[in-house]
Amino acid sequence: METVNETAVATETLKVESENQENARVIDFKMVTFSLSGKDYAIDIMHVKEIAKAGRFTYVPNTLPFVLGVYNLRGDIIPILDLRLFFNIEVPPRQENKLENMLILNVDDQIFGLVVDKIDKVVGVQRSTVQPPHPLFGDINIKYIDGVVESNNRLYVLLDVTRIFSSKETYEAGEKNVQASRPQAIPSVGMPQSAPRMSDGPMEKTPGDLAKSISKSAETAPAPAENIDLKFISESLKNYAGFNVSSVNESWVKHRYNEWAKLKNAKNPQLQTKEEADEFLKPFWSSCTNSWWTKDYAEKLEKILPENSAKQIIVWNPGCGKGMETYSLACVLKKKYPDARVRIYAQDIDLLSVSNAALMSVPANISSDWYSPYLTKKANGDYTFNQDIKDSIMFEYHDCKNTNALPMVDVIFARDILSLLDENSQEVVVSDFLEKMKGNAVAIIGENEVMPASFNFGEKTVDTIVAYSKD
Description:
Layout: H1 2-26, E1 29-36, E2 39-44, E3 48-54, E4 67-73, E5 76-82, H2 83-86, E6 100-107, E7 110-116, E8 118-125, E9 145-151, E10 154-159, H3 161-165, H4 168-181, H5 207-220, H6 231-241, H7 250-264, H8 274-281, H9 295-304, E11 312-318, H10 324-336, E12 341-348, H11 351-357, E13 375-377, E14 383-385, H12 387-391, E15 393-397, E16 409-414, H13 423-436, E17 437-445, E18 457-462, E19 465-470
Parallel strand pairs: 2-10, 5-7, 11-12, 11-16, 12-15, 16-17
Antiparallel strand pairs: 1-2, 1-8, 3-6, 4-5, 6-7, 9-10, 13-14, 17-19, 18-19
């Protein structure tokens, strides 16, 4: 009997080992996936140094249109290229303060940023499943496609970044050896002709050459103000304003510091008072903070909210403050979901504000604005929100860092509060967001905030408002 058991155990062990070996063979190639103009693309993860969000790049004159400028990446000045412009893909008009999605690449020992529409995730596949490219799979020249691969019912165009972004010498060497070094592509017979693309043939300078020349020029240029150690700024913002600099807002703080240095006309403009800290942060806060919303902002928010036919819409609004934001949000939700019962859990750690919010009156100057369908006039002539709006809101004292016994929610509206939490608390709160979000729910945070780098969210943008969804 013992012999039989030992044989069974040995057989099971071999089976497990065989399965592990089989799994190891299945995934032997990883790629970072992203989208351009609604189509799925990918890059070998070995070329991706990191992902980042940034904006307000420093313009470099006399460069090709796809070069957006240079950017300070933790002290290194790197060139930023727009992959959409490089491939002649239409790009919507840029907004001045919008953060771009960037892949930080390392090709031929040259580091540069690549702007794309949306960065998706890391996908593991078996290298043998990568098929030769076909002209119909991409909007780009076929010689820059390494292949196509399917994963989870999505077809990815795998770009050959070595051929795209190598120097001219490497490019020309690759042209001579292309037939021997890569699978044969299906001939582009009958492929429709289009306007010449920047990637259709050898250029005087490839992106790799441009990157090197831009970086070399940057080395001799005066260092921008954001190169200066921002540690003292971070400490001052925390001490004077309770503002925590982290990956949630670091990009904005760096750009603001650069502006601040110019504004103060000083080499080392420290924040020495609470008033200075408040002035520094003034552009950070989202639109209509601590005020009644404009019609324009209300319409943008309504547009970004997801379609939802549920009979009840559950909303979590941590950091509701005095209540103006919550009442405004309730009106937008009522317009967006007229047939649903809206329930807003409005929370704050300011007990006085939460206590007084339910008794709030509405100033006469907004009574004829977009709020008017949701207002009623009291006997003394003052305006207040109608009973339907009031009944939809539950104001309560609660710290979002603590356990929150809320039901699953359709909308999380938490503008600017992440920046008032330390990094550990940010992780806890965002984890709570994910745990409480329904499958089609969205989370809206501050206009100058991004979700912590350790979380993967889908994104939808309307003007300066970003709605994050479960990936």
